Amino acid sequence: MSKVSNRTKIATALVGVLAIASSNLVVADPLTDVQKADSMIHADAAASQKNVDKYFDQAQDMLFEYGSVADERESLKSYNDYVASLVADQQKTMDSVQSDINGVDKLRQGVVPLMFKMVESLEQFVQLDLPFNSEVRTNRVNELKNLLNTAEVTLAEKYRLILDAYSIEREYGSAVAVNQGKLNLDGKEVLVDFFNLGRVALYAQSLDQKTGWMYNPESKGWDKLDDSYLRELTKGIRIARKQGALDLFALPIPAAETAQ
């Protein structure tokens, strides 16, 4: 009986050991799961942190880009405002120019008749004036008359040339000049020196200096000078040609009331 009991005790002990072993195996499985879960949590946390870092970097880049775009927008807005002010100023200039153009059209309508009148008056003046440089002055008037009917020359240029002709005629009034030409006397042409004292008087002297004449505006002819004036006339001609020193000389002049 005692042997049976010992065997029973041994069996019981083995059963206990196996039971304990089985119990350890059962406890070991949940711990492994917890460790695996913890590892997965850490892995997920690391992945999440990487995503957070990536999104943060993206957000920072977007913020920087937004700042750059905002600065560029302000710069473009300032430039657009500047360009708009230029366009407005240019529009004002264009409006002013257009107004001037409209005024020019009206001015043209008044200037054209005026120019014809000016040339006509100049022609009459040359015809009535002392007959010095007659050919040159008459040709100048004729050129102006032809010019007025020429489409190739601008209106401004025509007006300028007319004013130039008037300026030349004005300068004749204070000029002391000598020109050689032919004087028609009783159907005969005599080669002479024409000497004009502005528009005060016009004289002529033969090239041999032996005869002199004075133009008579009243009769439109030439009166012979007294021989006593020949030396004075020669002196005046030499001074006009800059062949003699400035000096006084005495010559008769037409009466003021008869001069044209």
From TrEMBL:
Domain of life assignment: Bacteria
Signal peptide: 1-28
UniProt cross-references to InterPro entries, sorted A to Z: UCP028069 (IPR016866)
Pfam families: DUF3450
Keyword terms, alphabetized: Signal
Name of protein: DUF3450 domain-containing protein
